[in-house]
């Protein structure tokens, strides 16, 4: 498994971290590679340390790069855009010319390309360097000529100058690689129809004011940082002025609406950001482009209220952390409808799209064998397997009918598809993206709006769905406590699998709140130990209501929870459960990995129930609070839920007293006689009627570092 972790090597003396210095940074580092012993034989611990060292080394190596890749891309894209736009604008404002003059212009372009090819052949970089310096001045960037990456950037610039010259020549001859949206809108009827009445005109002295259409396309949104970070001025080319000879003396009664002005924001880091109003498109955008524009806006944290637009950086960061489902929606859109435009998608196309949504397997993209496969292929494969399973069931039913025996299990279950709620979630994501495009004027209307499931339709569809509501833990929890983790003397004191279910059952904490606990979060006031649930470094909360103080249950104290805290502090550990690792997902939560381990453990011990998961322990605790008659205000506080009681919110902002909360939590005692592996000191007096029962499994005395083995 060490091979799966980059820069991690296993030797006889333990694990080592080893990495070569990149070629671009070897001039600043000596020797050419680094090798450090990690002083451990445990793969999980070594992998965690190796990841931290790798991240630090990435920062060090990238800091020595003179010109970062995003700056290179920004320079090259800006140069190409300015050259093409300038050529188009000059051609638009140039009067009639002779054929000889037009041919001479093409010969000039050919001479430019010949000169550039000769520069590439002789390794001459001056033309590229001059273009780089001019573009950098336009963007307000400072690039030193002695940078080590300048030759590479100059070489790419010369090649780009060749391609730009070829594009200018094609456009000069009337050969364009992109089409305008007007003919397509006229053929499809998506554009506004002209009135049959004759327009009213009035003589004026000035020229006809024509609307200015920006000609540049929106940059690709794969790298959001390179797209959204723009200079405050100097990048946008002003719109073309109207021709003074066109339509002189007449003017339409209804003036055309001008394009919206650029909206500039400045956040706490003084980063200037442009809204989508500053990035109009030349042609009608595709569905994927509309989705990417909305995604870029949400990832910036742009909040809109009518004409008001505000940037909230934390909202953008939260959106990116929870964007896995959103990215899945984009993948589905790309696989089913492809790179089509809104005006090209008809009603039957949207109907087929929604039909395929209902047929997508529930686990699409999760299995390693399915990754990279188009959604349509996954649907066809699932349909084929379901057809085989149904045929097998029909054959078994016919056989049992003839033989008179009871039907046997066929061993082939139907593949679970997306639930109606998940389908609606994907639809609402797409509808939000298209509504955003309508608000920007990129498309005239959202034609997908009528195909989004409404709540009434969703309720009807869910009636025939299997029951997925969570079940409460009953005697199954006692059965769980009889397994190896709670009975073996080899269980570590910092085993998150040992403590997390107990904490969730006795305190009702969320899994992420438990796994991210640090030693500083365990405090004592007036002799009452409690958990201070806060949002700090490496810690996150589901909402602001999750900030609370929860007293520690007396049964957790008897099992040795405070001994765990003292043990971790003695070892210098920051976290209570350092072996719990974050998942390699956008959210980077501990829960994603732990829930898989918890499910695997229950399956191995034959106590698995899909509807009785880890979060059901918190649900069971909440049900106990309701059954015990705990006041709603106190119950919501303990659970970390929103409290609508104005009297509590305004007059009791610090919450309830610890003594009151401790009495509520200790009111319910659970059977823990099955737990033989306890880390608490046995000489203290037990609390609670259940734990007073004699322990049939004496616990070996463990102290110091031996308790972590």
How far from one another are the termini? 22 Å
| The level-1 CATH class of the domain at 475-708 | Mainly Alpha
Major beta sheet, strand line-up: 1-2-3
Largest sheet: 3 strands, antiparallel
Structural class: mainly alpha
In short:
Helix content is 45%, strand content 6%. With 709 residues, it is mainly alpha-helical.
Q: Topology, pairings included?
A:
Layout: E1 8-11, E2 14-20, E3 33-37, H1 43-63, H2 69-93, H3 99-121, H4 126-139, H5 150-172, H6 181-188, H7 224-228, E4 264-266, E5 272-274, H8 287-300, E6 302-305, E7 308-311, H9 313-321, H10 324-336, H11 347-359, H12 375-403, H13 420-440, H14 455-462, H15 475-481, H16 496-507, H17 511-515, E8 522-525, E9 528-533, E10 548-551, H18 554-559, H19 561-571, H20 591-604, H21 615-627, H22 632-639, H23 646-651, H24 658-665
Antiparallel strand pairs: 1-2, 2-3, 4-5, 6-7, 8-9, 9-10
Helix pairs in contact: 2-4, 2-5, 3-5, 4-5, 8-9, 8-13, 10-13, 16-21
Descriptive key words:
709 residues; mainly alpha; hpI Integrase, Chain A; three-stranded antiparallel β-sheet; 45% helix; disordered C terminus
Account of the protein in words:
The chain is mainly alpha-helical. Among the domains are: 2-63, no CATH class; 69-175, no CATH class; 475-708, hpI Integrase, Chain A (Orthogonal Bundle). It is built from 24 helices and ten strands. The protein has helices at residues 43-63, 69-93, 99-121, 126-139, 150-172, 181-188, 224-228, 287-300, 313-321, 324-336, 347-359, 375-403, 420-440, 455-462, 475-481, 496-507, 511-515, 554-559, 561-571, 591-604, 615-627, 632-639, 646-651, 658-665, and strands at 8-11, 14-20, 33-37, 264-266, 272-274, 302-305, 308-311, 522-525, 528-533, 548-551. Strands 1-2-3 form a three-stranded antiparallel sheet, with helices on one face. Strands 8-9-10 form a three-stranded antiparallel sheet. Helix 3 (99-121) packs antiparallel against helix 5 (150-172) and helix 8 (287-300) packs across helix 13. The relative contact order is 0.05.
